[in-house]
Task: structure prediction
Amino acid sequence: MGVPAIDLRGVTVKKAGKQLVSGIDWRVGIGERWVLFGPNGAGKTTLLQVISTYQFPTSGTATILGERMGRTDVRRLRPRIGYVGPAPSALVRRYLPCRDVVMTGLHAAFVDTRWHSYTPEDRRYADQQMELMGVDAMADREFATLSDGEKKRVLIARALMARPELLLLDEPGTGLDLGARERLIASLAAMGDGARTLTVILVTHHAEEIPPGFEDILILAAGRVRASGRTREVLTGRTLTAIYGMPLVVESSNGRYLAMGAE
Result:
């Protein structure tokens, strides 16, 4: 099968005497797109922190892009991982034009572009990533003038600027209205068309936020794996009913999902 993008074996994380995730086994192949799903407090963010190399397991082993944590310099590994979430988003210089925001991703920097050197090819590549995410028409607009949905798509383009091998998206649909959410989902669905070697992990707790093409899912609850496998087989009313403790049904159409209370 070759070297996987993510190989977690028995990963457990404890903080302040509390066990946040326990005994997680998870293998993700190169180029796969997975959903990390579960209710609030399930351990999704903790597991994402392990994969991003910013949280070391208390026990178990985590091998990311062929590098085992604890046996490698994570500072060399981190540039190979793109991450989009609340923490990095807060560091963006809001007065910068969107193209500049995207270009700063090349150096994983949040300072003005004048502090680093960029080539015409870098500029063209930034424009390509913005086009991929459907925000190319906003290249010259100040980041601060964008809607929340537009900002999130610009930040994903920024994460792609460094040509990462692994992209982590931490609940990118949070706070978006219906139109913004659907435009984001369309962009994420299209992402796989030209990036066959890019591995993507999407964190969400809403079934309707899962884009077409994200064919595998890991479901957490109370820090443990409750289900894992093909999304169409695992994301079922029976699984969610057991997790949430209420009758739920899941409907699917054209690669999209909807979870709701059973009548």
